[in-house]
């Protein structure tokens, strides 16, 4: 008789077993805020198409302290998502060769973050200019 | 010998298929010196405390890839991990995660061996050459394209770091994909279209959700996550190319 009886360990709660996996799950979780924020902006677009009164109602609803609080939370979540996104980016791309040298991971992560920061600042500046 | 012998507690996950229903922990007190690896600690247990303890090892210098274990929950080569870094706390040792335990710290790696065979880990010549034509020549750039992926020692730490493999053991996984990629990007090789079928399949690269821990634990800096993710792009290109070229892409 075969005496082998390989034991397969259960996977329950796998993501709690290693700090790396916890960070991964938080990263994935913050994507929900990205989706939620997209939904808010889309609602604004729909309200805009419904006329001036609807649009103004949406604007004043946004001033509700709960909404403002949610925006702060979303800002933090999306900032974290952006950071972890660019951190993993070098692992997901083919090698980038510049002047015969392979670009190091930190350079890819760094340029991603710089572009994200510049784009956010430009957008902020644009909207700021529009509302004033 | 120093005036005071240091003793560290090593907690081992034991499993004896003929006696145990499931694995259980056992703690050993092991005298050690600062130059002792976790592997040497486990060898001490086998030599002096309990001869029935089973584990794999060979080279003791991070090159054969047989001594992988979970050490305090992290996939590690036990010959390259030192007891002094855990002392005075207890160090926990367990068989590599996500693989069936054959006995104690020995895993069943048959599944991986099958995957390794399936990727055709050898050069399938792009063109037939006779001996008289001499060797294949390669530029440093052509070597650079695959060299990193050829450093794999089949230690399987990356599989123990991959939750998607843990959830679905059919997933071809990090090391096999890295090796597959190693041959696909070799300028001498012409077997890419055969190997792409595997990449595109149910068992292929789309099981990966870019956790990235595999590359973090790899002792040879193979960066298997990079091979897997580059092949997601290759697979997508393959899918669209078949509409454009009669013989491009896989089925
Ligand atoms: S890719 Fe790295 S971690 Fe995975 S088997 Fe090869 S050497 Fe080990
Ligand atoms: S014993 Fe060979 S890699 Fe550790």
**Helical residues, percent of chain B:** 25-40%
Q: Percent of residues of chain B in beta strands?
A: 5-15%
Given helix and strand content, the structural type of chain B is: alpha+beta
The SSE string of chain A, one letter per element, is HHHEEH
List keywords for this structure.
heterodimer, A: 132 residues, mainly alpha, 3 helical TM bundles of succinate and fumarate reductases, two-stranded antiparallel sheet, 73% helix, flat, B: 251 residues, alpha+beta, Ubiquitin-like (UB roll), Fumarate Reductase Iron-sulfur Protein, Chain B, domain 2, five-stranded mixed β-sheet, 9 helices, 7 strands, 14% strand, binds iron/sulfur cluster, binds FE2/S2 (inorganic) cluster
Walk me through this protein's architecture.
The complex is a heterodimer of chains A (132) and B (251). Chain A is mainly α and 132 residues long. Helices cover 73% and strands 3% of the residues of chain A. In chain A, helix 3 packs antiparallel against helix 4. Chain B is of the alpha+beta class and 251 residues long. The interface between A and B is medium-sized, with 23 and 32 residues. The site of FE2/S2 (inorganic) cluster has 12 residues of chain B, from loops.
What layout of secondary structure does this protein have?
The complex is a heterodimer of chains A (132) and B (251).
Chain A: H1 19-49, H2 52-62, H3 65-92, E1 97-98, E2 101-102, H4 105-131
Antiparallel strand pairs in A: 1-2
Chain B: E1 6-14, E2 24-32, H1 38-49, E3 68-71, E4 74-77, E5 91-94, E6 101-103, E7 106-107, H2 110-118, H3 140-147, H4 157-160, H5 163-167, H6 174-184, H7 192-200, H8 213-217, H9 224-244
Parallel strand pairs in B: 1-5
Antiparallel strand pairs in B: 1-2, 3-4, 3-5, 6-7
Helix pairs in contact in B: 6-9
The structure holds iron/sulfur cluster (SF4) and FE2/S2 (inorganic) cluster.
């Amino acid at each position: 008789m075969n005496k082998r009886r390989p034991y397969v360990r259960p996977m329950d709660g796998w993501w709690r077993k290693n700090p790396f996996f916890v960070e991964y799950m938080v990263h994935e979780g913050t994507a929900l805020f990205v989706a939620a924020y997209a939904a808010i902006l889309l609602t604004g677009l729909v309200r805009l198409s419904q006329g001036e009164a609807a649009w103004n109602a949406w604007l004043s609803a946004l001033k509700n302290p709960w909404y403002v609080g949610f925006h702060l939370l979303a800002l933090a979540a999306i900032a974290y998502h952006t950071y972890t996104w660019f951190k993993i980016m070098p692992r997901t791309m083919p090698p980038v060769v510049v002047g015969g040298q392979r670009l190091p991971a930190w350079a890819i992560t760094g340029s991603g973050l710089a572009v994200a920061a510049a784009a956010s600042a430009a957008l902020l500046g644009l909207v700021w200019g529009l509302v004033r | 010998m120093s005036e005071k012998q240091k003793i560290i507690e090593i907690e081992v996950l034991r499993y004896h298929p003929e006696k145990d229903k499931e694995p259980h922990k056992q703690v050993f007190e092991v005298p050690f010196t600062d130059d002792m690896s976790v592997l040497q600690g486990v060898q001490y247990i086998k030599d002096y405390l309990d001869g029935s303890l089973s584990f794999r090892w060979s080279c003791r210098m991070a090159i054969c890839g047989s001594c992988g274990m979970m050490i305090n929950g992290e996939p590690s080569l036990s010959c390259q991990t030192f007891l002094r870094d855990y002392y005075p706390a207890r160090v926990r040792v367990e068989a590599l995660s996500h693989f069936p335990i054959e006995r104690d710290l020995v895993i069943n790696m048959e599944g991986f061996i099958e995957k390794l065979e399936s990727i055709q880990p050898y050069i399938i010549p792009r063109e037939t050459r006779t001996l008289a034509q001499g060797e294949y020549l390669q530029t440093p750039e052509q070597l650079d394209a695959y060299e990193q992926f050829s450093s794999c020692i089949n230690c399987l730490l990356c599989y123990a770091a991959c939750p998607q493999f843990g959830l679905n053991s059919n997933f071809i996984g990090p090391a096999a994909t890295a090796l597959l990629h190693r041959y696909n990007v070799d300028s001498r090789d012409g077997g890419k279209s055969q190997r792409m079928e595997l990449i595109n399949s149910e068992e292929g690269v789309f099981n990966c959700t870019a956790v990235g821990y595999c590359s973090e634990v790899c002792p040879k800096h193979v960066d298997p996550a990079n091979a897997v993710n580059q092949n997601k792009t290759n697979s997508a290109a393959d899918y669209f190319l078949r509409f454009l070229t009669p013989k491009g892409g896989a089925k």
